[in-house]
Amino acid sequence: MSTTSETHEIDSNLDIIKNTLGVIGAIRDAAQPYLPLISTVTTIIAEIFNIYENVQYNKNICSSLMDRVTAAEAAIKTLERRKKNYEKNFRDINYYKTFLKFIDVMERIKQFIKEVSTISGFKREIDAIALKSDLEEMSKFLETIGGDVVDANQNINNVLKEVLIIKNQLRFQNSITKNIRATEIEPRELNDPQIGNSTDTRGNKESPLVKKLLNRAIEVACKLTKIIDDDTSESQKIQTQLAILGKLKDSPNILKFYGLSKISNYRVTVFEWAELGTLQELYDENDIAWCSKVQIALDICRGLVFLHTCEILHHDIRCANILMTSRLEPKIANFKYARHDSSHTSKINCLNEIIHWMAPEKLKETPDNPVRYTFKCEIFSFGMMLWEIAFEKIPYTNMEMNKIKEHVLKGNREKISWGVGPSDIQKIQRKFA
């Protein structure tokens, strides 16, 4: 590939990053009439999930309808986040009328589930023609939304769908559902590599990371875990988080979680093996080319957007939590503090480790005045990580924790000083900033 075409591709990738982040939170004038409609349909969907959690009878009928409702919920969230992409539709009066019909369909589905779920002794005689018409009308509307979460056949992405189903089960229950558990891997399915090397065991004695082969084919990392298999709420919460994490393994920018297993009677988590270690370790030992830096940043951005689509926040975005494959593919990892954006803010004790990437609003937090961690906080951390990738060092390296807090709260940030370099590299650096 020529230098010119490489530069053009890098420029394109940088534009994608900026445009992706710029769309978030943007509200166009054309979308204003739809805001109350979106709010209405969101409320109806929440009411449907609440009704479904209390279903007494005819669960099979209700369950099939809930698949459509879950798809509708994901599509509406996509529409709400990506208003810019649908500006043309928003200005179309027929689209507006279709949206009103869609709301009416959702309301009728809500009433149907409510009625059929409380009829005992027999199954209600269903007006099949009317119900089929309603569902077809809903499907047509979902097709007009499309987006990355809908595939070529206009079916909702299975990964997102399954994650949202689990999350909705949790949202409307007082206790954690006990049947939501991480995948169990039989110990016999994990074997030592036929040809080992010194990097097959990493970490320290307290928390070693061991390379194994899953089903004698897939390279995986096995790490000791303190997960206890009991019925306590904390154990069930961890199992649920791992189950959701397992659903994300089809995303190319998130470290695959295969499940839980045992090695020599020790409980271990089984993750995808990342040959090059963390991104921080990589830049400490090597000078990463600028074309690779841009691609790495773009892939991490895609992973974060996917997590946000699933309403999951990582909480600790930095190069130390990005693992790198032998093909220089970044994988977002270390979900120890990850949570859904509707759950309570996780308490993070290692402030001295993460303060270098922490958003100003979180720096203002006190025990008496907790500050909710939001997607904006995540994007701020992502921005600081871009600086880290660019300069290949931790932000504010030579500053003490209190000085960093004072510096950031005054509106100051890390310095950007590129130095002298080839013109094509300087162009990339200017766009990267």
UniProtKB/TrEMBL annotation:
**Which InterPro entries does the record cross-reference, listed alphabetically?**
Adaptor_Cbl_N_dom_sf (IPR036537), Kinase-like_dom_sf (IPR011009), MLKL-like_MCAfunc (IPR059179), Prot_kinase_dom (IPR000719), Ser-Thr/Tyr_kinase_cat_dom (IPR001245), Ser/Thr_Kinases-Pseudokinases (IPR051681), Tyr_kinase_AS (IPR008266)
PROSITE patterns (UniProt xref): PROTEIN_KINASE_DOM (PS50011), PROTEIN_KINASE_TYR (PS00109)
One GO biological process term is: cell surface receptor signaling pathway
Domain Protein kinase, residue spans:
196-433
Q: Which residues form a coiled coil?
A: 62-89
SUPFAM superfamilies assigned to the protein according to its UniProt record, in alphabetical order: Protein kinase-like (PK-like) (SSF56112)
GO MF: ATP binding; protein serine/threonine kinase activity
Q: Which UniProt keywords apply?
A: Coiled coil, Kinase, Transferase
Q: Which Pfam families match?
A: PK_Tyr_Ser-Thr
Give yes or no: UniProt keyword Transferase.
Answer: yes
Gene3D superfamilies with a match to the protein in the record? Adaptor protein Cbl, N-terminal domain, Transferase(Phosphotransferase) domain 1
Q: What is this protein called?
A: Kinase-like domain-containing protein
- Which organism was this protein described from? Gigaspora rosea
For this protein's source organism, the top of the classification is: Eukaryota, Fungi, Fungi incertae sedis, Mucoromycota, Glomeromycotina
